[in-house]
What we know:
Layout: E1 12-22, E2 25-35, E3 41-42, H1 48-62, H2 68-77, H3 82-89, H4 93-100, H5 107-122, H6 125-133, E4 144-145, E5 148-149
Antiparallel strand pairs: 1-2, 2-3, 4-5
Helix pairs in contact: 3-4
Amino acid sequence: xxxxxxxxxxxxxxxxxxxxxxxxxxxxxxxxxxxxxxxxxxxxxxxxxxxxxxxxxxxxxxxxxxxxxxxxxxxxxxxxxxxxxxxxxxxxxxxxxxxxxxxxxxxxxxxxxxxxxxxxxxxxxxxxxxxxxxxxxxxxxxxxxxxxxxxxxxx
Length: 155
Ligand SMILES: [Zn+2]
């Protein structure tokens, strides 16, 4: 299926150790790749996403940054889309997509996510629910009946 570029033999798909230079630093990690008996290793296109995330997470762990799993876990715990999560943090949705695909976040951004996590944990579920579904600019279009607001999810 996959032929070695070095020697022409068939390559085997398996978990193996890679060393990758990222942000001026070598990180070593294990992920699924293609390995040849001659020692040549590479990654198939279908393995690239996992490779990038595993590599980024190895770097992040070394530098005490949140991993892709942690960032994703936080977003999922809020049951938010990437766009909603981006709005909560005040960043572009593309930034969220990059982090989740293994682009390493800046330290300042990492701090922003952690501070937001802390803030969110201190808030009530109702406040969070409001933040997610209510666009307060739309309130003027709602019926207000004796202190009762008709809550309409923002489009
Ligand atoms: Zn080979």
